[in-house]
Amino acid sequence: MEIILHGGAGGVPDEPEPRQAVLDDAVEHGAAQETPLDAVVSALCVLEESPMFNAGVGGAIQSDGQVRTDAGIMLSDLEIGAVASVPGVSEATRAARVIMEETPHVLVRGEFAAEVAAGFGIDTNVTLTTEDGLEEFEELDPPDGDAFEQLEWVNEVFGGAGTVGAVARSGDELAAATSTGGLSYAIAGRVGDVPQAGSGFYCTDAGGVSVTGTGEDIIRTTLSQRTAGLLEDGESAQSAAETALEEFVDLTDSTAGIIVLDADGDTGITFNSDAMQTSQSTEE
Ligand SMILES: NC(=O)C[C@H](N)C(=O)O
């Protein structure tokens, strides 16, 4: 099993080593699986459980003080599953897999996604906020009221970084997945690129892609599909990632990171933020 993971594009972390150790552990979990699908789900589960990453527990807090999770998963045969804006679910990638395997849909949102996930044994009453996260949120003096009443505050404080993603390959099967709490202090109910196929993740039989960065700009440029398209045109994994990021920056002047694993097992990594931690195992 070949697998590559990222822990989100953003600033240089205060303590990179413990985050790197969790990423390496997640790669080990993923590499031990039988299929690329199992590999990306089990690797991202490890990262979703860790409050050091913006996914699952410790994900970005929205304007009403809640964390809502987004995730998407795609296989090289174009099967897709995704969940958006889900309260109480840390294992968002597992929930996305349930949508792919058990429903006729590709994307289900919110409490409805949680209801379906619960039926398939996924915990749906998980506390996703951490004490540190809530403290930082309160320091920003968030206003009471509904989403409209919080909008002025959101326009001032919205931002942040993070997200986790994985791509795995075994033989001619590939899987790509991305999972996040979104960006910090977004308006309650905001959904970014992560659960949208072609934006936060994409996979064809040429290769799989997971991206991270400012979701609104990633959606504008369908960054994952753009990268996968370059692979289809014959670019190498690294060159596809770099070309797609250049185009993204030209179009949006924004920040992102991209990981790629192609059908030959070659990897590509690029980002224009200050840092993006990754880990990989390239043993077939
Ligand atoms: N930093 C991130 O990768 C966040 C994610 N792309 C989002 O906008 O929801």
Automatic annotation (TrEMBL):
**Transmembrane parts of this sequence:** none
Matches recorded under Pfam families? Asparaginase_2 (PF01112)
Which EC number(s) does UniProt give? Answer: 3.5.1.1
Residue(s) at site: Cleavage: 162-163
**Top EC class per UniProt?**
hydrolase
Binding of substrate: at which residues? 190-193, 212-215
Example GO molecular function: asparaginase activity
Which InterPro entries does this chain map to? Ntn_hydrolases_N (IPR029055), Peptidase_T2 (IPR000246)
Active-site feature positions? 163
UniProt protein name = Plant-type L-asparaginase
Which catalytic reaction applies to this protein? L-asparagine + H2O = L-aspartate + NH4(+)
